[in-house]
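TODO from last week: model Mitochondrial porin.
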Amino acid sequence: MAVPYSDVAKGVNDLFNKDFPFAITKLEVKSVASNGVAFTLNGSQNPKSGAISSELKTQFNDYHNGLNTTLTFNDASALGFKVELADKVLNGLKLELNNTFIPATNGLTTKVTVSHKSPTTHSRILADLLNGPIFNADTIALHKGFILGGEAGYNLKTGNVTKYNGTVGYATPEFSLTLQSNKSLNEFTTGFLHRVAINTEVGARVHYITNSEKPVSIEVGVKHIIDKYTALKAKVDSVGQVGLSLTQVLRPGVKATLGASIDSTRLNQDAHKFGFHLVLN
């Protein structure tokens, strides 16, 4: 099944980015009412500065009419309202309206997204109506495992192209390989993910930045699921940063993740980061 352009390398990106809480303490509480309304409370604290941030999200899914409504509010006094309508106007077509309002500054953003998906294609048009307006479009096509896609942005007010990028790749249930450009062809990332066993996957990412003193950086990572309750992850990059993660399901609905970032070039210095993430569902 074709995925959005931003999710083409999701597997390898999750391997390196997900479940690594560094230098932060996070709490996530989820609950669902009997009528299907879902509540999510996110809170985090920076151990060094002591700064706390939080967000409350309320979501209601009307599956019969294909309607999804989400309300969010955070401690920065930003109020978000999102409405999604899927598969009603046309099979595979999704319409999304996303508004954010900050009462203290009267700041308002309004974004509209129109997307269409099929087994072999996924296309989107995103419009930031009050900023520019700026239009972004992206598309992905699949054929026998081969992936080809691109994205572009255009500011209608200034008449400037804001970005242009592309991606190519190949994916099977066992492994995937992708090459993506970012920042209008000024950065390139190659990602490789291989499921070497049903409970083990390994991956690598190579970043190349043009006009940089150190243009190339490399990351290697592995994830191993010990059992249905415990998972281990580890990664290391070309500058000696080592990431470690342990995820443990303590009981049904309670999951804890411990993360550590170790600077192997400064083992005897205060250069390491630790974090904790607790999820109550």
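Done. The helical segments are 10-17.
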